[in-house]
Backbone:
């Protein structure tokens, strides 16, 4: 627990209240942790990441036409990840009526983690494409300036 929380708990004069406050704080931390790790929450973060990445790829396709085919390939890969995420969401919605199972929780979290990893790999590939284009433009600018200096 954080030192600040322990400092506040130390100010509580009654031991019973102090231990109750510690137990409630610990229970709240566990509930928040479980909520953040829940498949629905993870899937929400993944969906937001996919949407942002798709927007970034579309913007890059407009501004970097030279790399259009590479970016289109990354868009295809991203749509595959989005399709996997959609099937995971379908499984989550389909299993809500069933009782809670740690095994199902673990499998869903693992599948979402795999999709997140794939989406991050696509993001890295897009960043590499954009950086390569930036380097190409910089090299062209350097050559252009060198040519202007030799002519002058």
Residues:
């Amino acid at each position: 627990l954080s030192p600040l929380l322990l400092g506040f708990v130390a100010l509580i004069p009654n031991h019973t209240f102090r231990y109750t406050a510690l137990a409630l704080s610990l229970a709240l931390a566990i509930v928040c942790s479980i909520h953040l790790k829940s498949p629905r929450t993870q899937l929400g973060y993944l969906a937001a990441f996919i949407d942002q990445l798709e927007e970034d790829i579309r913007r890059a396709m407009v501004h970097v036409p030279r790399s259009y085919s590479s970016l289109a390939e990354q868009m295809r890969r991203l749509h595959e990840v989005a399709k996997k995420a959609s099937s995971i969401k379908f499984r989550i919605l389909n299993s809500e009526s069933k009782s809670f199972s740690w095994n199902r929780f673990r499998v869903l979290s693992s599948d979402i983690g795999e999709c997140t990893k794939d989406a991050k790999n696509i993001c890295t590939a897009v960043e590499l494409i954009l950086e390569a284009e930036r380097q190409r433009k910089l090299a062209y600018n350097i050559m252009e300036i060198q040519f202007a200096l030799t002519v002058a």
